Amino acid sequence: MKLRFMKKNDEGNDVWSFYFKPLEPLTWIAGQSVRLELPRKMFGIDERRFTITSAPFESHVMITTKLSDSSFKQNLRNLKPDEIINGYAVEGKFVWDKDMRHRLLIAGGIGITPYRSMIAQKIYEKQPLDATLIYSSKAKPAVFEKELLQWQRQDLSFHCHFLISKRLIFNDYATLVPAWLQSKVYISGPSKMVEELSSYLLEFGLSESYLKQDLFTGNLD
After folding, report:
1. What are phi and psi of 35, to 5 degrees?
2. Buried-most residue among 38, 68, 144, 157 (CB within 10 A)?
3. Average of pLDDT values for 21-30?
4. By C-alpha distance, which of 82, 63, 77, 70 is closest to 46?
5. Which of 206, 212, 219, 211 is nearest to 93 (CA)?
6. Is the Cβ–Cβ distance between 89 and 35 less than 8 Å?
7. Domain ranges of the chain
């Protein structure tokens, strides 16, 4: 599919959101990802997979990433308005399922991106979230903090907790969500964080069927 670059937005702390307009009908489920292709300066193409940060009801595809000195990220940074790139292979199982349990959403850094899509879609559909978000961020304000707090005011069943410059540990979510053992738990962030927290949760009795992990944790290069 062809995507027309629209604009970019500085989210702070070297994190940027990039907006694209699909040139053909595109459907996805909140939380899924897309593979983007960019031409290399010398020859060939380069590709990376990104969570689609925008919600399905929105008219654009937004991806959010921390920029670096890699050739791909620099090419992404230098996209010009109306430039056309290729996107394909929309997929992913880290989505909001039909389970009626309370949801504990754990995000580390750029791992907030699938939640932004999921929460925005549920708010748009006027469906109660019945969820608690625990979001660990190195920067204040955290990426999408303003939107998240606005959605918290709109939906009294949704609660946000921001942990700034603090490494997530088991006691954080055990204290903030005492009923975590009966919750459907989602974890998204750096692979080491996802693996460690998942291990603790399972060790302390969480059923594996109640755990969803974002195995795509973004692109650091």
Report:
1. -95, 130
2. 144
3. 95
4. 70
5. 212
6. yes
7. 2-91, 103-213
Instruction: Enter the tokens of residue 115.
Output: 């939640």
Residue whose structure tokens are 């593979």: 35
The CATH class, in words, for 103-213 is: alpha beta
Query: Tens digit of pLDDT for each residue in 120-158?
Result: 999 999 999 999 999 999 888 999 999 999 999 999 999
